[in-house]
Amino acid sequence: MITTFRLITAFVVAFVVAALVGHFYVPWLRKIKAGQEIREVGPNWHKTKAGTPTMGGVIFIAGVTVVVLTVGFADIRGGDHGALFVLLFSMIYGAIGFLDDYEKLRKKQNLGLSARAKFLLQLVVAIALLYLLRLEGYLHPHLYVPFWRITIQMPEWLYFLLAAFIIVGTVNAVNITDGIDGLAASVTLPVMLCYTALAYCWGVQFRSLGVFSSGMTGALFGFLIYNFHPAKCFMGDTGSLFLGGAVCAMAFALDVPLILVPLGIVYILETLSDIIQVMYFKLTHGKRIFKMAPFHHHLEMGGWFGHKWTENQIVTLFTAVGLVFAVLAFFGCYDRYGF
Predict the structure, then answer these.
(1) How far apart are CA 329 and CA 269, in angstroms?
(2) 171-213 residue pLDDT tens
(3) Cis geometry, peptide bond prior to residue 230 (ω within 30 degrees of 0)
């Protein structure tokens, strides 16, 4: 009963805080002209979005931060630092995104930090998080395989190497998914709901992590007030890298990293479409499989069947797919700890 009340409270508090922060923050972003530059190679109609305020991810970051430090304070005081670790990790990734957004605003173009700089920063942060979680006993050098209910023992060095690249890959996959109004935030909602359900089922020792994921869900709903099409603000890399960090950190803090395969199916498909497009383009000397990658742009441009999907239609489709796989992910892992 206490856990249920706390999870509901986390959701409500985060939603209210995010909605209130957005009410004042979005006009302030417009006032300081923190407008997003639009990629020259993107769909032509996206150019009408030029000047829309970016760095809106601060809205949901504020919501979940308040929740962790208030609703989750009793757990922190009792020695359960799980939510605090996840928040810290996500914030560091958000800080990398902030540097990227700042560079874009400073240069007045859609190019921020170099790909190499971002990769190295993300890799260092990933290794630091894994070491911290290992030190605090939240994870062990083995992989639990969802659905099959087996655990694969691994050498510690190999586990950490694999885990670090899983984190960096997933964070960037979430970043790639952030391409149209409301998409990344909406697709992440089923992910956080799945984490919340698992934490609830697994008992009080996972309550602080449940508080984080429930708070994240509420904060994203609050953010979508300003980000759903037509967006009043974009989350920017500040928000998308924070989201990617949160998605990864929760999976590792719950010690079920392979849940990211079904749970992150939309992120994975979006990234694969980008990789396939680039490889096919190089192999065929200029031919393309998709009208534009990632896949959401292909649908926008009427790829394959001629129907040009609206942004809201794409968000609805991708979120529905994410929800189906979130349910599958839950049933693949729900008895991980003997529920």
Answers:
(1) 16
(2) 999 999 998 999 999 999 999 999 999 999 998 889 999 999 9
(3) yes
